[in-house]
Amino acid sequence: MEDHTQHHDHHARGSHGPGHGTDDDHVVHSHGQHAGHSTAMFKDRFWLTLALSVPVVYFSPMFGHLLGYLPPDFPGAAWIPPLLGTMIFFYGGMPFLKGGLNELKSRQPGMMLLIGMAISVAFVASWVTSLGIGGFELDFWWELALLVAIMLLGHWIEMRALGSAQGALDALAALLPDEAERITDAGTETVGVSELRTGDTLLVRSGARMPADGVVVDGQAEFDESMITGESKTVLRSAGDPVVAGTVATDNTIRVRVTAIGDDTALAGIQRLVAEAQASSSKAQALADRAAAFLFYFAAGAGVITFIVWSLLGSVPEAVTRTVTVLVIACPHALGLAIPLVIAISTEQAARAGVLIKNRMALERMRTIDVVLFDKTGTLTKGEPELKDVAAADGVSREELLALASAVEADSEHPVARAIVRAARDQGLDVPLATGFSSMTGRGVRATVDGRDVAVGGPALLRELGVVEPAVLAATTKAWMDRGAAVLHVLDGNRVLGAVSLEDAVREESRQAVAALQNRGIRVAMITGDARQVAAAVGSELKIDEIFAEVLPTDKDKKVAELQGRGLKVAMVGDGVNDSPALARAEVGIAIGAGTDVAMESAGVVLAGNDPRAVLSMVDLSRAAYRKMWQNLVWATGYNVISVPLAAGVLAFAGVVLSPAAGAVLMSISTVVVALNAQLLRRIKLNPAQVR
């Protein structure tokens, strides 16, 4: 069994790291319809296109007729819309033209091709009219201008939204200071963080942020780790304790030896996890892609039929008008935004709550989970011993007994010793000074306290000394051992003064997590290699539904398979290397405590801290995100299916016609609705401390 205390001290790390995130205005997407396009590019093109569109629209006879005014008439006035419209087509429309061409080359027709086709048809038709060729009345300059402007606006809004979904990454860089104070033989020197090396000793002043991972070598300070773990309460770090880059020493100056720098720090590892989450694909995304492909062929077919039918009816200009409108309306742009934005915002929200989603499939599957299987040690429990009870012999008080035990154990570094000393300190006991400390391997420790030879040890010590504990004590200690507790006796010479019991402490958060999961209709199971009585004691305390005890590390994944064999969908929560196969086998693997552990590689989700209540954040977020995905899919797809026939002119006989500009406005409204609906996910509160 690994040292879980060390594991959690070392791995309880947070949701932010030194990011490679870019400025919001320069987010570049590497795939899909925005390949090579940045937020700044769409913004700049939108504002210039909008400025050029104003005179194009104002000088348009058709627009003037619609609003009941006559555009100014002076020599050359008629050429203002064509000239400025051409600039708009090539400047504002270039991202769509290039994107459409790329989609043609890759034989993957999609949204950019539809936009490119629409503006190209409008451009050609308008020039034909402006040059007086064929006598067509296809003056679409104002529609072209508005179409390009509105499309650019829609893309800018989308890119800004997608860019803000990178917020968790953008915030990572801010967690590291630019400089550090390195201690040298001559004093201290200020150096850039990039100049630090493993083994350097740093001076970290009160209020300063840790520039790297390290171990405290001198002094102690209360550390604010809220940006890492989400826990607002400060944590005392003293000599020998690890500290993590990005955390803040709040009250004292300490010296720290650097143990990890740059890409090796916890923050860098976590940054990679968040980036991984942003880039991963998902089943629901594939569903959206299939819907977009269907709508493309639907639109292309509708466009061809529209042109043929209206041409057969003897109205070629109307055929062109209707075809252009179909191509505008049918662009499934909102559909392309429907799922990615929900996932991106969910990933960001989760990261802010200390839940790092490595695999987006894990987010989608979490809503379907039937049972959450927790590893016991270090997950439901603290993974370190805690004083549970004290029993004193006749004539000895419990306080005196604990003070004596603490005095003897004060110089020991054993986890059991630390638990006893901590308990005495927490109770405010007056602990006497011990001298002559010595350790008896496998039996216990001894020291001289106020002239008395006091020893603290387990059953092996009693056997070695040939001492029998009093019957009244024996009944109590037997009950402790039946629970699986570790029992230590305190002896003065050969006299047994009393005994203390130590157990792996159950996290208070675990009680809340188990109850909250059960309230959501999810069963809770526990798996451990510990003895049945130990597991039963913890299971009873937490009211767990099912317990797997005395399970060998290599058999943990078999228990996951056993649950799956019953038709249950399993989320496995663990923290150790030996949990990795089970994490990989479960529908959702959740590693608790972020680090470089093999468990993290096997898990789809990493809880940045060690709070099991964060599992509830995953459940709630998964359910909310799924609702948003379907709301957006239904809206985007339904909008297109209903609008395309209208754009084709099926209700033209009733006087209902949809112009390209009106189509562009409606389509952009659809896009904005989808984006705003996804933004509502930000209202979800994922604070583990507030789970119910």
What this model shows, in words?
This protein has 692 residues and is α+β, with helices and mostly antiparallel strands. Helices cover 50% and strands 17% of the residues. It has 26 helices and 22 strands. The two termini are 33 Å apart.
Residue runs with pLDDT of under 50 for 5 or more positions: 1-36, 161-169, 280-285, 594-598
Instruction: Give the spatial strand order of the biggest sheet.
Output: 10-22-21-20-11-18-19
Oligomer: single chain
Number of helices: 26
Describe the main β-sheet briefly: 7 strands, mixed
The portion of residues assigned to helices is 40-55%
Overall SS class: alpha+beta
Number of strands: 22
Cα separation of the termini: 33 Å
Beta-strand portion reads 15-25%
Q: Report the average pLDDT across residues.
A: 78
Radius of gyration: 34 Å
Q: What gross morphology would you assign?
A: elongated
Structure in a nutshell:
This protein is of the alpha+beta class. 50% of the residues lie in helices and 17% in strands. It starts with a helix and ends in a 13-residue tail after the last helix.
